[in-house]
Amino acid sequence: MNTLHSLLDRLRRDRGGNFGIMTAILLPVLIGAAGVSIQITDMLLSKQQLQGAADAAALATATALTNKTIQPADAQAFARDFVAGQMANYLQDTDPSTTDIKNSTAVNVTTTTSGKSVSYQVTVTPNYTINVNPMMRVIGFKTQNIAASGTTVSGHSETQGSVSMYLVLDRSGSMAEYTTTTNTSQPTKQENYDCSYRDSKGNKVSKTCAQTVTNYYSKIEALKLAVSSLAGQLNNADPDNTYVRTGSVSYNDAMQTAQPLTWGTAKVVSYVNALTASGRTDSNAAFKKAYDSLVADSEDKAHQDKTGQTPTKYIVFMTDGDNNIASADTKTKEWCDDAREKKIQVYTIAFMAPAGGKALLNYCATTPAHYFAAENMTALLDAFKSIGAKAANQMTRLTN
After folding, report:
1. Where are the domains of the chain?
2. pLDDT tens-digit readout, 66-106
3. Among 65, 205, 307, 343, which residue carries the largest CB count within 10 Å?
4. How far apart are CA 221 and CA 64, in angstroms?
5. For residue 59, how many C-alpha atoms fall within 13 Å in the half-sphere facing its CB?
6. Which helix (H) or strand (E) element contains residue 374?
7. Alpha carbon distance 213, 187 (integer Å)
8. 352 CB contacts (<8 Å, ≥6 apart)?
9. CB count, 10 Å around CB of 117?
């Protein structure tokens, strides 16, 4: 009996046998845990890959809709093909999951229209089924579904797209003076001069002679070309006359009949091309006319009815001289102050003007960058072109 007890006690204290038994018991568990861990890692990687494909497909589809390279009716097929193409980088061509992804991808497109602005919200939700490894099957899983969802909003909008611009233009007598720029379409002209002489008896013989001289642009001719350049900038940005309204008024010692604000630039160009130079200078009433026209409720309503937008407003104020009426500078400055309060952008152009005219236009300009001192015709054309380009930039359509 003692011998048996001793043997059992020795067996109990033998650690080598215990380790072997524990290893035999735990090894299947460890292998199973490793298999499950590997499967979970693969599933997380597949989920990450599918999420990237969903996000990329949503962005690509929304962009294609915005750029009008596809129509909304084609969006589902486009997005499905895109997801399948992305996932083909990770799946074998023979893997049936490639076909499953394409067929099971859900695509939803929501179109939102506000005025002239259109946006597309695209949601792409792909999923596919993968087979699990034997260790996962042991614990009851046969397959596992991988799913993801990506949403993108893209579209075009018109930021400050609507523009109302009023030109206030000097047509006083000094605008008939010549610039130093040769008329390119007719560089020379015939000019008559008095070539009277006295005959041998001392009697005066009246005679008129002709000579060829350089044909320079007059200031008012230069102004007409400059306005056409500005109009061209606006027309390029708004070929359908949807966003731009322009008007014009001219002045000498009194305000002349104005061209009311209308869509596009054609009527303003015609108005300016018909101007002639005469009289003295008083800018007060003309600037007031431009201000009153722009702040009128009817002007905002015209844009709201057509584009749903509130326009950015401009006054382009040009002179080549000083006001001849004592109170004209003071009153004009008051209207310039009112325009500043109403957030009207006032651009001013002093065209070969004396100090007084420059001082007035410097004061009226919204900022120093809004003031142009044009000492020759080229500078005048550049000034109007620059103003047109800045206004046209308001109509740039931005892609979000």
Report:
1. 13-158, 163-186+218-399
2. 778 888 889 899 989 988 888 887 776 545 554 578 888 99
3. 65
4. 48
5. 7
6. strand 371-374
7. 9
8. 179, 219, 320, 374, 375, 376
9. 18
For range 210-235, the mean pLDDT: 94
The answer to whether 163 and 312 have CB atoms below 8 angstroms apart is yes
CATH number belonging to the domain at 163-186+218-399, selected among 3.30.565.10, 3.40.930.10, 3.40.50.410, 3.40.720.10: 3.40.50.410
Which pLDDT belongs to residue 138? Answer: 55
The neighbour count for residue 63, using CB atoms within 10 Å, is 17
Strands 127-131 and 143-147: antiparallel
User: Is the pLDDT confidence value at 26 over 60?
Assistant: no
- Specify the pairing of strand 204-205 against strand 197-198: antiparallel
Apex 373 CA angle, 367 and 374, nearest 5: 140
Tally DSSP H helices, then E strands, for the chain: 12, 18
CA distances from 363 to 149, 216, 346, 347, 390 (A): 58, 31, 10, 11, 21
Q: Tell me the backbone φ, ψ of residue 319, rounded to 5 degrees.
A: -145, 160
Two structure tokens written together for 99: 């076909």
d(CA 169, CA 123): 54
Give residue for tokens 């410097």. 362
Which tens digit of pLDDT belongs to each residue from 131-186? 655 655 555 556 667 788 888 777 654 445 799 999 999 999 999 999 999 988 89
Strand 397-399 relative to strand 150-158, pairing: antiparallel
Report which of 47, 107, 45 is spatially closest to residue 81, judged by C-alpha positions.
107
Rounded to whole angstroms, how far apart are CA atoms 151 and 118?
Answer: 17
- For the whole model, what pTM was predicted? 0.61
* Cα–Cα dist 89/86, whole Å: 6
Give me the percent of the chain exceeding a pLDDT of 70.
Answer: 79
What CA–CA distances, in Å, run from 42 to 50, 179, 218, 251? Answer: 12, 80, 81, 80
Helix (H, G, I), strand (E, B) or coil at 68: coil
The one-character DSSP state at 200 is: T
Q: What is the rounded distance in angstroms from the CA atom of residue 227 to the CA atom of residue 265? A: 10
394 — phi, psi (to 5°)? -65, -20
**In angstroms, how far is CA 116 from the centroid of its own chain?**
14
Q: What is the pLDDT of residues 261-293, one digit of tens each?
A: 999 999 999 999 999 999 999 999 999 999 999
